[in-house]
């Protein structure tokens, strides 16, 4: 029974995704809405995207955030990242770097390179967290190792302001953080 319902989810979600990609937002909405109510995280995320961009529904950033929160509560990495952006940029919610840090950290812990890069910037600039060049370098380095070119620039910029001992400490933290699959990689 569980296998059948999961397959039904995938089939309905896929049909909605195909419709969305063809710009048939009405069909996408009709396929995804029932799934969102059943807790399907990817459908919740995509419904949030539809509301953010006003595709097939009135544009509404607050409704988008509502759907992303539901998906994020299930660990959906793109929803976590989008919520970080919501609070970092002040889209549909007051700008709040501490809340943005929370969501970006959860996304970064799942290997989201852009969230990791943004965390590097937040530590570098002291946004939502105390300024810390060692942790800035670490997060930039982690994102850079995944091919994020902006993170390479951030890491190099941070390194210019650091002592050799700080760089070594940051590199050791990078190794430890990667070994622990990005868990526990925050400055406490």
Low-confidence stretches: 1-9
Query: Which CATH architecture of the largest domain?
Result: Alpha Horseshoe
Order of helices and strands: HHHHHHHHHH
| CATH topology value of the largest domain | Serine Threonine Protein Phosphatase 5, Tetratricopeptide repeat
Name the structural class. Answer: mainly alpha
Main beta-sheet strand count, sense and barrel state: none
Helix proportion range: over 70%
* Mean pLDDT metric: 92
Please identify which CATH superfamily of the largest domain we are dealing with: Tetratricopeptide repeat domain
Distance between the termini: 45 Å
Instruction: Tell how many strands the DSSP assignment holds.
Output: 0
Rg calculated over all Cα atoms: 19 Å
What is the number of independent domains? 2
The gross shape turns out to be elongated
CATH classification, class level of the largest domain:
Mainly Alpha
Helix count, DSSP H or I runs of 4 or more residues: 10
Strand content: under 5%
């Amino acid at each position: 029974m569980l296998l059948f319902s999961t397959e039904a989810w995938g089939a309905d979600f896929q049909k909605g995704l195909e419709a969305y990609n063809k710009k048939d937002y009405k069909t996408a909405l009709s396929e995804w809405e029932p799934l969102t109510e059943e807790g399907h995280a990817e459908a919740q995320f995509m419904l949030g995207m539809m509301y953010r961009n006003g595709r097939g529904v009135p544009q509404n950033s607050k409704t988008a955030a509502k759907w992303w929160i539901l998906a994020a509560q299930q660990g959906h990495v793109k929803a976590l990242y989008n919520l970080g952006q919501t609070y970092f940029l002040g889209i549909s919610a007051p700008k709040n770097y501490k809340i943005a840090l929370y969501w970006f950290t959860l996304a970064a812990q799942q290997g989201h390179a852009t969230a990791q890069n943004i965390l590097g910037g937040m530590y570098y600039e002291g946004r939502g967290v105390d300024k810390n060049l060692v942790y800035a370098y670490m997060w930039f380095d982690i994102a850079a190792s995944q091919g994020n070119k902006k993170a390479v620039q951030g890491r190099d910029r941070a390194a210019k302001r650091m002592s050799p001992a700080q760089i070594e400490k940051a590199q050791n933290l990078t190794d430890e953080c990667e070994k622990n699959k990005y868990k526990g990689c925050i400055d406490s």
